[in-house]
Amino acid sequence: MTLDLLVAILMTVAGAATPLLIAALGELVVEKSGVLNLGVEGMMLIGAVTGFAVAYVTGVPTFGALAALCAGALVSLVFAVLTLSLMANQVATGLALTIFGTGVSALIGAPFVGITTATLGPLFAFDDPLMRLVFGHSPLVYLGLALTLAVWWFLRHSRRGLVLRAVGESDEAAHAIGYPVLKIRYLAVLFGGAMAGLAGCYYSLVLTPMWAERLTAGRGWIAIALVVFASWKPGRLLLGAYLFGLVITMELQAKAAGFNMFAPEFLAALPYLATIAVLAIISFARKGDANAPACLGKSFRATA
Amino acid sequence: MFKLTKRRLLSAATFAAASLAIPASFAQDSGAKDKVKAAFVYVGPVGDFGWTYAHDEARKCMVEQLGDKVETTFVENVAEGPDSERVIRQLAQDGADIVFTTSFGFMNPTIKVAKQFPDVKFEHATGYQTGSDNMSLYNAKFYQGRAVLGTIAGKMSESGKAGYIASFPIPEVVMGINAFTLAAKKVNPDFETQVVWVNSWYDPAKEADAANALLSQGADVITQHTDSPAPLQAAEKAGAIAFGQASDMSSFAPNAHMTAIVDDWCPYYVKRVEAVLDGSWEADNVWLGMADGEVVMSPFSDKMPEDVKEAAQKVYDDTKAGTYEVFTGPITDQSGEVRVPEGETLSEEDLLKMDWYVEGVKS
């Protein structure tokens, strides 16, 4: 295996892992606050189409990314109002959000089918493969890594992170102490939406710079699976995202090399099998506790 | 007091349906018409820039040619399966004279509805069976276009290795891979086609990753039987060459895009609607290609050297004239066994159930 090929593979891994990582980080914070938002796919699509549209109209891809961030947060606000203030079922509302996002993104995107735009590509170009591996990625790849560190520090070492975790573990207790449960959950959901939007625009501005209906093709669901796979820990999430990216890439690389030891269907199923296996192992090791936030998916109404 | 029961509702509905259906079936004769109502059922959005887009362009082109002798309607984004049956029936009920159902999965619903509306003509694209003599089948020989792409690839590739991004191993896709490889090997006997199955008709990110994997392993030509322009973008970045799928995709890859196979259903639609107009319509099963103008190539890129252009044009012209058929023996399969002896040509029947690869295909 030549160095060039190795670098090419690793670059593709980073490309496949980054949107999963960013979307999953957002969902991790949402779930840590006790809310289950299954609308990641829909929010990603809204982010993808908004990012593309704004980048195309303004000619500045950075504006596109910022717009994607805002658009994701805006749609997640709909989810927040429905589930937090109006106490709608979180699973059903999340699924509805995905369907809504798929439809609305197709509607917004109709005039943008079949055109390309400036991309949010690497800042520096290098001929040397090693330099390219270290510095030659899209800024979003580095942002994903920085965000992982930030989320880890926030949840583990900051006071606000502790409060957010408390709300997710026992909303009643947190409320009794005097923490604003709903406000914290609103903020968490908005953060999750913004991250999903940003992850979505990674597809339309970096990986495949174009807009077409259902551009993300189900990656939002992988992001949700990833949160469970990582057992709600940012460090493992990073590992998991790159592992998923590696499996996705190796499946294609193996086929491109004409390497047919495993059925391709098996390789394609591997990330999901891995998620189930990890869940089983964790549950078994901790005797039924997979580290899920105790209030995950439950509605909260202040009673006192 | 009139009580609303399920039985009464049902009988009322049956009566209503019968009273609607009877005049429709008595009002028609098989003779000529002044004006034809044609309806189209599409599986995707008309803006998909691929399959459905091509059908809708053909519909518009037909309207342009026939003027006020035809009136068209279409329903887009129709899911394959039970929902499509409802849509097709509705169109027939609304007085369509001819209904075109343009996706493989509409076949069984079309058969069902065709039996219920014997005086409406039905045309189904890419299917393999009908149930009554008011239903026709039509398809296009896209593999003829793949032979043109293969010729270009064989001439232009320096590594002699092409990457082929494929969706599902069905005969339609397999014969495309084989036609491409056979044509390329005629120009460069050592040519190889590496196939990567992505198990999807449409997954831009995966298609792009597959293209990148192939490019990093030495392929300098990318071709695809999936619907998004993502592989072209990957080829553009890597400085390789690539081909558009179903429509001209040069806007996505101005340097890499050499040409594209374009589906032109317009001549067929004009012909069939004219047949309904003059009363000569008959059920048929047609598989048309370049000779009928149904499969065409988008303009060759300026980046293509003159001799390559000439060779590609020659394949196109000869196919059109009927003197070139890519599946002419000798053809050996992957294991080296001769499948088609010298001088013989694979029959259409064998092509439509092709499940083996020619020598030079790696999958």
Question: What does this protein structure show overall?
Answer:
Chain A: InterPro entries: ABC_transp_permease (IPR001851). Chain A: It is a multi-pass membrane protein. Chain A: This is ABC transporter permease. The complex is a heterodimer of chains A (304) and B (363). The longest helix of chain A has 30 residues, at 3-32. Chain A has helices at residues 3-32, 40-58, 61-85, 90-109, 129-135, 139-157, 159-169, 171-177, 181-207, 219-229, 234-256, 264-285. Chain A has 304 residues and is mostly helical. By secondary structure, chain B is α/β, with parallel strands linked by helices. Chain B has 2 domains: 12-141 and 264-292, Response regulator (Rossmann fold); 142-262 and 296-362, 3-Layer(aba) Sandwich (Rossmann fold). Chain B is 40% helix and 19% strand. In chain B, the strands form 3 sheets. Chain B has a 7-stranded mixed β-sheet, with helices on both faces. In chain B, strands 2-1-3-4-5-11 form a 6-stranded parallel β-sheet, with helices on both faces. In chain B, helix 2 (51-66) crosses helix 9, helix 5 (142-156) packs parallel to helix 6 and helix 5 (142-156) runs antiparallel to helix 10 (306-321). The longest helix of chain B has 21 residues, at 6-26. Chain B is globular and about 70 Å long. The chains are: A mainly alpha (304), B alpha/beta (363).
